Amino acid sequence: MHSDVDQVSQRAGERRRAELGEFLKARRARLSPGDFGMPAGSRRRTPGLRREEVALLAGVGVTWYTWLEQGRQINASTQVLDAVARTLRLDRAEREHLYRLAEATPLRTECARLVVPDTIREIVQSLEPLPASLINSRFDVLMSNRASEELFWEWHTMPCIHQNTLWCCITEPSAPGKFVEYESQVRYMVARLRSAYGRHVGDPDWEEDIRRLASMSHEFSELWARHEVAEAEPRTLTYRHPRAGTLSLAVSELNLPDLPEARIVVYTPRDDHTRARMPLTRRDAATAQILG
User: Fold this and answer.
1) Count of CB atoms within 10 A of residue 16's CB?
2) What is the mean pLDDT of residues 128-138?
């Protein structure tokens, strides 16, 4: 029985790696050396970049990249894949496809999603123009208003598939550069997770979630091993927004008696500078800048 399952899993992995190789070939075929200011050279049998050129431009080993296209079972870190994605000029959908095929985006177990009452949804939406989200004790984002979605919608360089603030911070390479208090924020979130974990010890979803985070992130593993716990406390989030600049936001939590496993998180400007810059975080402002 286990042998049959293993064989099916092995065949699926082989097919996925083959699909990855074909995808990479197709993407480098649409580029040319001239796109990068390189001479075309002679004896070029097929259009597009050669494997050696992709490896050179991405700063990765030629042998490693060749094996990646050949569908070999090799370790492909997110940092290296990100360099390949930039070189091949992949858009957001193509990047997500690349990471999925390379199994580099660490998938998490699906949480038991809370049913959000319409009254709670209306409260979160009514907090506009303040960014607000409904988050559970595992930091899953159950819903957000538009202000919150637009505030954080383009801070990822990697595809955001987790819908979980802790997982996004741990897995996103650009997070330390975007959040000034990154280290203290992550330490605080892990301590909050540890506090909530006390009510879910032995829960398969929680145990698997924590196991995957610990195996994927040395940072999380070390923080988790400290057994630090924390409750809600006033906090400041200093966020570097690509258009609005550095924003200083007060983080407030609103507990919900009807949903003890969830809380509304609201971001409020802490100073006049941030208050004046907040409109620049909206997508209509981004469109206006482009059209202007």
Assistant:
1) 15
2) 95
